[in-house]
Specification:
Blueprint: H1 2-21, H2 39-47, H3 67-76, E1 98-100, E2 103-104, H4 105-113, E3 115-119, E4 125-131, E5 138-139, E6 145-149, H5 153-158, H6 166-173, E7 181-185, H7 186-192, H8 208-222, H9 228-238
Antiparallel strand pairs: 1-2, 3-4, 4-5, 6-7
Helix pairs in contact: 3-8, 3-9, 8-9
Length: about 240
């Protein structure tokens, strides 16, 4: 009996191991399961994930997607008229948030986007070199750089953020995962202001492909709306991407 019990125990142990090996990780939104969603909804959900479809050569922003994924995202966005600015205040989008090690979001982006960046004990950039995506300017003084919100705070307010809570607005204003934040020349950022792509475009047209994909990815993730002229200009920007 002792030998039979030992053999039976070994069989049970093997069966348990086989069963456990088939479990894998919990199913997530990118695991090919629709979770009751329609195929269209599932495709839109997958397209909104950071990095879906892969980045392209020359991309400098995080969470970039391919042109085809960006087109899918754009087609899924709700088209409507821009809402009013009633009730808007930049203070409703808390920034810059603390990111640990005495660094706030601005300093993290400066470090990420620059080359040979040195920082002091308070995490402030002391030296480095940055290339501004919007105008191609090379900047060596961090004080002459702005951290731009790809989709400006006021533009987000007009396209849906007015209905968000404070936590979501803070996440939007400090998003380091998606292509929402980048270090650019102060002059180009202030020229852009809070304008959408139909009203303002980077002077360096080589950045249009990246700009259009980034803008669409951010709006897709946060469920923001677009206007007809905005969508038309983004489409034109995506058309500049190499096939």
């Amino acid at each position: 009996m002792g030998r039979q019990s030992g053999a039976l125990g070994a069989v049970v142990a093997v069966a348990l191991l086989v069963g456990l090996s088939g479990c894998g990780s919990p199913v997530g939104p990118g695991d090919g399961k629709t979770g009751g969603k329609s195929p269209t909804d599932a495709a839109s959900s997958a397209a909104s994930q950071p990095g879906a479809g892969g980045a392209q050569a020359g991309d400098v922003l995080p969470g970039m997607v391919s042109v085809s994924v960006a087109r899918t995202q754009l087609a899924a966005l709700t088209v409507g008229k821009a809402a009013t600015m009633a009730g808007y205040s930049r203070d409703k989008f808390t920034h810059w948030a603390e990111q640990g090690n005495k660094c706030d979001t601005r300093e993290v982006v400066l470090k990420r986007d620059g080359a040979d960046v040195t920082q002091d004990g308070e995490c402030r950039a002391q030296s480095g070199k940055w290339k501004s995506l919007y105008d191609g300017a090379v900047v060596t003084d961090a004080a002459k750089l702005d951290i731009d919100h790809m989709v400006p705070l006021a533009e987000a307010w007009r396209s849906g953020a007015a209905g968000w809570d404070a936590a979501k607005r803070k996440a939007f204003a400090n998003d380091l995962t998606r292509p929402q934040l980048l270090a650019v020349s102060a002059s180009s950022n202030r020229s852009k202001g809070d304008q959408s792509p139909d009203l303002w475009q980077p002077t360096d047209k080589s950045s249009w492909c990246q700009y259009g994909r980034a803008w669409t990815t951010v709006k897709s993730h946060y469920g923001l709306t677009v206007t007809e002229p905005e969508r038309a200009k983004i489409t034109a920007m995506l058309d500049t991407c190499a096939s």
